[in-house]
Amino acid sequence: MSTASIAAKAVLKLEPEDYRILETIENQTQKYQYLPIEIISNTTSIHFQTAKHHLKLLQKKKLLSYQSQPYEGYRLTTAAHDTLALKELVDKNIIEKFGKPLGVGKESDVYDALAPGGAQVAVKIHRLGRTSFREVRRKRGYTAQHSDTPNWHKQSVVAARKEHIALKLLAPYGMVAPGPIARSRHILVMSMIEGAELYRYPAISNLKVVMREILDNIRLAYQRAKIIHADLSPYNIILQPNQHILIIDWPQYIRIDHPNAKSLLERDLKNVLDFFKRRQKLAVEKALAYVMT
Ligand SMILES: Nc1ncnc2c1ncn2[C@@H]1O[C@H](COP(=O)(O)OP(=O)(O)O)[C@@H](O)[C@H]1O
Ligand SMILES: [Mg+2]
């Protein structure tokens, strides 16, 4: 069973005491890697023996991990972080029913879900740390630099928050990216899009039009929202059934006044143009001038 499906199941079954316990442990993760049982019992005002009973069950449900030395304590598993975030999204009437996987990326799991009223939405669970630490540090300026054991959950929350901001910056300018709906912790809910990543299309009939639309979207992001994707490739461009494109996966966006803005934009454009290379000749410099002016 995947981490997210353990969480989705837990959301339906847990008791209020369980949530009090999980939230208490979550609130103290900065201070304690494993939270002592006494503190859990005192903070939640749940009697020690009762707390112990709940903790054991939560551990059995794979929501907590346990240490016995140097003191008895518990910490949240990834499934528990998912559970807390999904629960908040359910309580706020953002989602009602969690669905099936839509895509497993390098740094996220994306699922579909039903919103109250029956609309389908996409739920992106950020999962940093799946690739190596060095890779993440190379790609993202905001990874903790001084810690040997980076807090991947915290980094995932930062990524989701950043992507949510990017989608909100882009939203007023038309259909460049999925529409932002809500976020809890490391989970971002956005509008559902149909179609498939550009790299899956070996032959595109209206190549010129598609390429032009991609450039126009990069330009719109640059000139109106004033941001650069900075991780653009045919993997993060979706060609929809209506033949229009959308750009996804924005947590690494930078503002256009970033010191490396031009070279990152150039890299984005190169990644896109390379895909069209054999069929369509357009110099990176020409594309760069088009986007920036
Ligand atoms: N809004 C969405 N609607 C439908 N599918 C999506 C949506 N966002 C992402 N996906 C699917 O999930 C995959 C991974 O998403 P992406 O944002 O690129 O994350 P990653 O950082 O893991 O690459 C995409 O390739 C796509 O198949
Ligand atoms: Mg991606």
| Radius of gyration, CA atoms, in whole angstroms | 22 Å
Query: Which blocks of ≥5 consecutive residues have pLDDT under 50?
Result: 142-147
Order of helices and strands: HHEHHEEHEEEHHEEEHEEEEHH
Distance N terminus to C terminus? Answer: 50 Å
Strand arrangement, major sheet: 4-5-6-8-7
Tell me the layout of helices and strands.
Layout: H1 3-13, H2 16-27, E1 35-36, H3 37-44, H4 48-60, E2 64-67, E3 73-76, H5 78-91, E4 97-104, E5 108-114, E6 120-126, H6 133-139, H7 152-170, E7 180-184, E8 187-191, E9 196-197, H8 207-225, E10 227-228, E11 237-239, E12 245-247, E13 254-255, H9 261-276, H10 284-292
Antiparallel strand pairs: 1-3, 2-3, 4-5, 5-6, 6-8, 7-8, 9-11, 10-13, 11-12
Helix pairs in contact: 1-5, 2-3, 8-9, 8-10, 9-10
The structure holds adenosine-5'-diphosphate (ADP) and magnesium ion.
Residues 105, 235-236, 249 line the site of magnesium ion (MG).
Features:
Arc Repressor Mutant, subunit A, five-stranded antiparallel β-sheet, about 290 residues, Phosphorylase Kinase, domain 1, alpha+beta, binds adenosine-5'-diphosphate, Transferase(Phosphotransferase), domain 1, about 45% helix, three-stranded antiparallel β-sheet, 3 domains, binds magnesium ion
Describe this structure in words.
- By secondary structure, the protein is an alpha+beta fold.
- The protein folds into 3 domains: 3-80, Arc Repressor Mutant, subunit A, CATH 1.10.10.10; 93-191, Phosphorylase Kinase, domain 1 (2-Layer Sandwich); 196-292, Transferase(Phosphotransferase) domain 1 (Transferase(Phosphotransferase), domain 1).
- It is built from 10 helices and 13 strands.
- It has a 5-stranded antiparallel sheet with strand order 4-5-6-8-7, with helices on both faces.
- The protein is elongated and about 70 Å long.
- The model is unreliable at 142-147 (pLDDT under 50).
- It binds adenosine-5'-diphosphate and magnesium ion.
- The site of magnesium ion has 4 residues, from loops.
- Adenosine-5'-diphosphate is lined by residues 102-103, 105-108, 110, 122, 124, 178, 190, 192-193, 197, 236, 248-249.
